[in-house]
Amino acid sequence: MGVTLETPLDELDFLPPNRARLLERFGLPTVGALLLHFPRRYEDRNQFDRFPNDTTDQPVCVCGMVKKTSIRRIRGWQKMFDVLIEEDGASAFGGRLVCRWFNSHWVEKMIVQGHRLVVYGKPKRSGGNVIIAHPEFEVIEDDAEESIHLRRIVPIHAATEGISPRVLRRIVWDVLEQLQDDTVEQLVPEKLDATPRAWALREMHFPASMESLAKARRHLVLEEFLAMQLAVSAKRTELKAERGEPHCGPGEWMRRLHDSLPFPLTKAQQRSIAEIRDDLASSRPMNRLLHGDVGSGKTLVAMSAMLLCIEAGFQAALMAPTQILAEQHYLTFRRLLDPLGVRVALRTGARREYGGEMPLFDPSPRTDSAPGEPHILVGTHALLYEGAGFTRLGLAVIDEQHKFGVVQRARLREQGSAPDVLVMTATPLPRTLTMTIYGDLDVSTLDEMPAGRGKIITGVRAPSKLPEAAKFIREQLDAGRQCYIVYPLIEESEKLEAKAATAEFAKWSELLAPLKCELIHGRVPPEEKDAIMTRFRSGETKALIATTVIEVGVDVPNANVMLIENAERFGLAQIHQLRGRIGRGEHKSYCILITGTDEEEAMEKLRVLEKTNDGFEIAEADLRLRGAGDLLGTAQSGLPPLRLGDLFRDADLMKLARNHAYLIFEQDPKLERPGHAGCRVLLNETRRTILAQVS
Ligand code: ADP
Ligand code: MG
């Protein structure tokens, strides 16, 4: 009987049933699943590292003989297990290493004198010894298994309880022995990468060389990316086939708005508005992303689009991720649109308010909405859930999409008759991510800042410099400016050992007395928040002590200093967002990043922010530091997590996969051609995963 990828593990005669059960519980029920459980790293056991005689930055992989073991009791209950190993064929000098475990009963039972060990870990010099604490290790048994565990590039798989990497390696080996390669279907089209899939799967687990491993990996990363991009393209094709109706007036109101502004629109704003206008005028529903760094002026673009929409007799909605932002948008909208007689209403979980109930002139004789009904609704997510009662929703604008899931976007679409959707984000995502997360959207980019912006100067400082910083802030406030002081305290995690904003508030009130300071954080009730923000906007309050609730969108041009404490706790992109709150007026602005410790390491990471103000550059640096994992989380992207590929390292492959997926859907939208059978499999697989995640 031949083994195929579909064969359940419990049907393999060489695998004991209890092991099959453990693997199934580990999420690996079939041969196919097992083979997609790729090694997390490899050890080249053809050529071990030499025994280190000092501390190293990188882990080493060495092999040696156990000379001595000892167990010592320290501090009563604690036990320390030392294993002295000696390099094979080493001279009397060097070539010795101590592996040390604390309270690891099971290790004590596994290692005895005379064993050969492969050890992997970071050595530290301590006194006369070189020690690796809690290394990964494997006992080399001198059985016939050498060809699996030794003298080759050996895979180290993530293990599970009851199954060690060594046992798992053996199982994978045995499975591959029996796998019938001709039953392994080719999934990636030949044109994209002709490497045989079965070969690639084999090489991933037991590579013949680093070169062939790279080749195998390339094929499987392409497979993974293609699966993702096929799902994105399918979605895109689906959206393009939807029918709606045009939601675009002649543009008279928009012209009046633009005429009322004290500044001209930037070229980028004009271009984006033109792109959106074309979409609104088309009967195909718009699905567009408006992408632009903080302060690039997205709100005005959105407002222009909304005017075009309501002029055609429809309603428009703007959704913000937080209460504060919704209220701020509401105020901006009323300030600019009341004079035009546009009725704007606020609707959030906590508050409802109608404005402009007595328009100066009947705003739209062609409107179908009842008189007095708002033209524009501004709110939070609540708009989605409590059936906001749109009578004729023509355009939904979603602000700061990175906090807004794909699911919500879909829900919105369900509410009306296929409204146009404009998503705005200030998160300067690297291009690979954009084409993944937002791959189904058209994109307009605001790549130009309005003229006359004050510069932001950023400085990273040790905590010992805090008094100097306070003195500097005081000077700025005395000169009539305002400031933000930010703490890395997140609403839900009060236990975070960050300095409590409340305690710091007392400190700053004293430091800056008699100037007025106020405290704002996630737990302040909405009405109070509103009042605090109003006092800050009016200039009555000079310093706002805040958690990241001020993260996005808050707009007070007179505030020109931001001090962030424990800055290393934030991601770079997040700090970039935060500092976008300043540099909004004509004044020179200052962002002071105070680290939690005096250590250079914490400061080093933040230096990128001193060097550049370019959001995209920062996003790339951030991605490099943090990895793309959390950015690709389901809630945000609606896409499965990556198994193998790396959005940063493999950016070129993502581009390749994207172009290919587009092309395939253009030529063969139903994937019916024989050459696309593999793509159909990949697409269905991705859809299944997405469904499983959502439910
Ligand atoms: P963001 O893209 O971060 O949402 P906003 O839309 O909040 O940016 O705009 C930031 C500030 O810039 C606002 O005060 C807005 O009035 C102002 N602004 C927008 N467009 C221009 C422009 N073309 N010229 C000058 N200032 C502008
Ligand atoms: Mg904004």
Walk me through this protein's architecture.
The chain has 695 residues and is of the alpha/beta class. The chain has four domains: 47-151, OB fold (Dihydrolipoamide Acetyltransferase, E2P) (Beta Barrel); 185-241 and 650-695, no CATH class; 267-273 and 285-446, Rossmann fold (3-Layer(aba) Sandwich), CATH 3.40.50.300; 456-626, Rossmann fold (3-Layer(aba) Sandwich). 38% of the residues lie in helices and 19% in strands. The protein has 23 helices and 23 strands. It has an eight-stranded mixed β-sheet with strand order 13-12-14-11-15-16-10-17, with helices on both faces. It has a seven-stranded mixed β-sheet with strand order 6-7-4-3-2-5-8. A six-stranded parallel β-sheet has the order 18-23-22-19-21-20, with helices on both faces. Helix 6 packs across helix 7 (210-241) and helix 9 packs parallel to helix 10 (298-311). The model is unreliable at 356-369 (pLDDT under 50). It binds adenosine-5'-diphosphate (ADP) and magnesium ion (MG). Adenosine-5'-diphosphate binds next to helix 10.
